[in-house]
Design brief:
By secondary structure, the chain is of the alpha/beta class. The chain has helices at 12-30, 43-49, 55-63, 86-97, 157-173, 194-207, 220-229, 241-253, 292-310, 312-329, 345-356, and strands spanning 2-8, 35-38, 66-71, 101-107, 123-129, 142-144, 148-150, 183-188, 214-219, 236-239, 262-266, 271-275. Helices cover 42% and strands 18% of the residues. A 10-stranded mixed beta sheet has the order 2-1-3-12-11-4-5-10-8-9, with helices on both faces. A hairpin with a 3-residue loop joins strand 6 (142-144) and strand 7. Helix 9 packs antiparallel against helix 10 (312-329). The two termini are 22 Å apart.
Amino acid sequence: MRIAVVAGDGIGPEIIAQGTRVLEAAARKYSLPLELFPVRAGAKLYAESGAVISEEDYRSTVEADAIYLGALGLPEVRFADGTEVQAALMVRWRRDLDLYANVRPLRSYPAVPSIYAEPRDVDMIVVREGTEGLYAASGGGAMIGDRLVADAMVITREGTERVARAAFRLARRFPPRGGRKPRVTALDKANILRSFALFRRAFERVAAEFTDVESETLYADAASLLMTQHPERYHVLVMENFLGDIFSDLAAAYVGGLGLAPSGEVGEAHGMFQPAHGSAPTIAGKNVANPIATISSAAMLLDWLAERGGGEAFVAAARAIGAAVDATLAEKRNHTGDLGGSATTEQCGGAVVAALR
């Protein structure tokens, strides 16, 4: 299995170094047939060459079994229209590889502080549709000078149904902790926009196929309140891409922040795995970034490969990384600054490797 490793910008090289360190340790322990190869891409490359990625390197990522990504983007590096350059590459990957489900699991850890005075047992998976929605307007829409811009929302029945089925399958495969029943919640604004009304109808048709999984629909504005009040109530949430971008970051606050938030963008034949946070250029090179989201994304990568021919060894390796992360975060001496600790990026990654061994 060939994995394209894209370090990217900002803290990307530091966190991907720890992620690949853990991935390689798991590969050795479980005899996984993995080949990791580097690919250069990002805003820094664009500033130097005028291309976010070379065409040759882009082809290598498309031909790989999966992409493992650190972080892309620098806020000062933008196209003439004001948009950041990395967005064009992300959208291109999503479209060309048909990465229709952006999966972001979030769970609380007993020793990690959160925004709540009393501990909350959060075990949530946010699923964003990755190829449609408002972001489908990227590079398109209508622009008249600097006074009028129109970006179109794109929702199809087929696109909604397949991401909804992915959400229900995740609910079955990864039931919530504590004996709670699996549940899928769809977020929309079906009371205002016809596009979201179609999203809701398509979701409800799919929900009828999964009678063993509870389902419900919520308006997104109400969900922002209810989820924050009682995050432990929610299990799998599925939504349009723009809403998912917002709610996945919001949900990360429930468990200690984006430093703990992995993600996987997957389709039927391709997958891309990366931390949910950005490149954080203000702390780049200081060895203080939290690598846990990147390491947990490696576990997601192995689990996804297991379903595509990797077999039980890949499942075992993914679970072992998850257990090693649990053991690492149980010790406050391993917490990085964003979690209130003083561990460096390398120390935190090293603790995961030690626990894995």
